[in-house]
Amino acid sequence: MRKINKVVLAFSGGLDTSVILKWLQDTYQCEIVTFTADVGQGEEVEPARAKAKQLGVKEIYIEDLREEFVRDYVFPMFRANTVYEGEYLLGTSIARPLIAKRQIEIARETNADAVSHGATGKGNDQVRFELGYYAQQPDIHVIAPWREWDLTSREKLLSYAEKHDIPVEMKKKTGSPYSMDANLLHISYEGRMLEDPAKEPEESMWRWSVSPENAPDEAEYLDLEYVHGDVVALNGEKLTPASVLEQLNKLGGKHGIGRLDLVENRYVGMKSRGCYETPGGAILLRAHRAIESITLDREVAHLKDDLMPRYAKLIYNGYWWSPEREMLQTMINASQVNINGWVRVKLYKGNIVVVGRDSKTNTLYTPGISTFEDDDGVYNQQDAAGFIKLNALRLRIAAESKQKK
């Protein structure tokens, strides 16, 4: 076993990472640095400090990364209208590159020679974290306990915690029926009851949203203001990126928006059933496409749509720091220069309805040309005959060939 002097551990303070902390100390006889990232999971992160201290950790990092998360990761992703496999808004995927980057920075600051995470050997997160580590520091040593130890169940983890006097809030064999992950963009649910894709999730599972049936009977209107493809104001109030997403989550959840029940294809090769709540993200996606509809050139819009699935797969699979993702991002960002204006949406019982959009400076929509009424003086309808015949040429040739057979 390689001699390790110091490890930076991505530490939540929960059962898994608390056991990992003690296991690292015992297995590698090394010093531990804990890093807890606040990316808007909605839980107190300070208890992680007390837990780390109780387990003998001297260097403890707890950092608020919410603004950086939305500004530098979520918003750039939504500029591309990114959706994985037609439905998933990549809430878990997009948080990992930021956490990995900061973890490596802390490793450098503390002269650590290894990093560690609590992702399991069956999931995508191990790939996302470790690709992020290696992209930032090629020679970093990675310790993935779930691929090394024999603590392969919750019961074994609880037994280990009890044996080593590790404080655990719930030393029961029951606990939460789901594995959950949350940040400012979404909350996810996996495992246990959800492993049967034929069973409908219990209503009590959902944390952020009411069911559409129980949503208000009156619709609510929102005005979103855009500058270079990003929302900068909501209902006339200027907001930071994180504040925008926080407000949209509350409003969308109130109206039963953003629920998803999905069987997805994991990068590691298996299918997995997960449920997600992404109310703010669902609104952002719909509104962004609406502002692009009047400000983005047709061929640019279609090219973005062609490339988006590739871009989404890169993020899902953990390649945020890859040169191809960065190349695509440069193109996407360039497409957003003129995406300025406002969009009005109506929220009602699980639905997001675009009811207005405008751009005073960059609209490509010209009512005088689009109208069916008076002659616009620009578009000669007779020109369409030649346009159609030229485009029909190959179809006519194919038809004549078939008739000769």
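The above is record 1. Record 2 follows with the same two-line structure.
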Amino acid sequence: MVGADWIKSEVLKAVPNALVEVIDLHGSGDHFHVRVISDEFEGVRPLQRQRRVLAVMKQHIPHPIHALDLKCMTPEQAEIAGDTAFDPHGGGQGVHVKRIMRNKE
């Protein structure tokens, strides 16, 4: 099992100056929502943003990470995006997770 701090440190290897928010969706250390906010994403297509992060994270999928909900955005996009967490295993059709429920433990 891995934790939010470890996920954050791995993501920062790909985007060193980013603001990284991590939510352990089930408290199980294997399903995570990761929001990466960086000026470096300006003018970069969404898939290319994710590929940059996944280049570092793919070695950890499917073990120890089973599911990774990855959102990569500019600061301006983050301001208007609101809640972005999504649990793909939440009841069969996915469940949006309130940002205020962020891993407070």
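Confidence is low (pLDDT under 50) at residues 92-105.
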